[in-house]
Amino acid sequence: MNEIIEELDKIMNQIAYGVPNEKNKNLLEIMDEDEVFQHYYYLQTPEELIQSKLGVCWDQVELERDFLTKRNIKVKTYFIATYYSEENIPSHTFLTFKLDNKYYWYEHSWNNYKGIHKYKSIKELLKDIKKKFIKSHDTNLEAPTLIYEYNTPPSHINCNEFYKYAEKSKLIKINEPCYFYHIIDKEADITKGILSLKYMYDNKMYELFDKHAEKYKYRILSSWNIEKYKGRKEETLTRSEIIDALEIFRGQYGPSYIYFFKFPPHKTLGKKMEKILKDKNIYRININDEELILKIKDIFYGLKIQEVDKTILTKSYYEKITPEEYFKNYDDTLEMNFSTLNHISIAFIDDYCPNSFIEKI
After folding, report:
1. Secondary structure of residue 111 in the 3-state scheme
2. Using an 8 Å Cβ cutoff, are 145 and 129 in contact?
3. Rounded to whole angstroms, how far apart are CA atoms 294 and 186?
4. What is the CA radius of gyration of the chain?
5. What strand order describes the sheet that includes 280-286?
6. Spatial CB neighbours of 305, under 8 Å, sequence gap ≥ 6
7. What's the number of CA atoms in the CB half-sphere (13 Å) around residue 41?
8. Residue ranges per domain, the chain?
9. From CA 48, how far away is CA 56, in angstroms rounded?
10. What's the rounded mean pLDDT across residues 127-156?
11. Which percentage of the chain shows pLDDT scores above 70?
12. Would you identify the CATH topology of the domain 2-171?
């Protein structure tokens, strides 16, 4: 095996990171990177890469795959990407193989980790690469990072086509769970899942909409301080106006948001909570579930309720907080007793959380 890797190294060390033009000049040195990938990049064949001696990780992995496969070494290749926004999705591809019950990551294009790395399991390998990949972004922004296992892609596909190809491949699930909780009326129909107000409105589920929207009427006319609704009476608010008010106060996803607590409320918090929970079931979701992540269009982690100048919270806040800290400011005497508990707001792509992702506790 050492001889094979040394031979592969000799080939790969002739290749620099870049995108070649027709004269095998590196376009990344003479043009804007975004423009290069949007308009000029295409996936080279292994033979073309050897000729051009310029390729990004996507190209280099295909040469590595071709070389090792021809020597009867079974490989697996992976695509990793962090989804900051539709326009900002840094990615990387890498190759692995198994030998003598050990797992190996062969890396050439990522200079900081060039070489071969050994692991006890594929999960350990993938988690380590994911950690290194996220750290390499040098940003405090939080965004989902997903890994896909993909097979040999078609040659000469462009950048967008490569992303689409990889994202249709096998989604890898290695995340540790991170649970959040939602309370639902015991008689509620959850066959489809947990529904947002937007879903109820769009699907003309008006009786259910009216029931869940009632609590917002007072806030729309008073505490939310929305100019266009000042002086109105609660009974005059239409359903479409409630949707509009939620968009004004909570942003474009306001009517789509479904709210989740970090820890399940419990009856020992007070008599009022005990009475509320008698008619409720508690469900949890794992927001780290890679399949669920693909169903989410936005998460707002809320504002720190206990502060005057409310801090915008992050996922890290909830990952570190203990149940004791979370519930310490709960006030059972308040009319809106849940208002003292920090919670997150999730907007799902289809405006509901699918039943397959919720678990009754």
Report:
1. helix
2. no
3. 28
4. 26
5. 296-300, 343-348, 257-261, 179-185, 280-286, 359-360
6. 329, 339, 340, 341, 342
7. 25
8. 2-171, 179-360
9. 13
10. 93
11. 99
12. C8orf32 fold (3.10.620)
* Strand bridging mode 179-185 / 145-150: unpaired
In the block, tokens 């929207």 appear at 213
Q: Yes or no: say if 303 and 313 are a contact pair by the CB < 8 Å rule.
A: yes
The residue among 44, 45, 135, 152 whose CA lies nearest residue 90 is: 135
Cβ proximity of 164 and 91 under 8 Å = no
- pTM equals 0.89
**pLDDT tens digits, 39-72:** 999 999 999 999 999 999 999 999 999 999 999 9
Sheet holding 170-171, edge to edge: 115-119, 102-107, 91-99, 75-82, 145-150, 170-171
Name the average pLDDT for the chain.
95
* CA pair distance 62, 77, nearest whole angstrom: 9
Measure CA 61 to chain center: 25
d(CA 283, CA 301): 19
CB 61 within 8 A of CB 53: no
Owner of token pair 């982690």? 301
52 backbone dihedrals φ, ψ, rounded to 5°: -80, -30
pLDDT of residue 141: 79
User: Measuring CA to CA, how many Å separate 255 from each of 22, 123, 191, 216, 241?
Assistant: 52, 38, 21, 11, 11
> How many angstroms separate the CA atoms of 241 and 217, rounded?
10
pLDDT of residue 307: 57
Q: Output the pLDDT for position 300.
A: 95
Measured CA to CA in angstroms, residue 93 lies from 79, 130, 163, 349 at distances of 4, 11, 11, 27
DSSP 3-state assignment of 292?
helix
**Helices 206-221, 239-250: crossing angle, 10 deg rounding:** 50
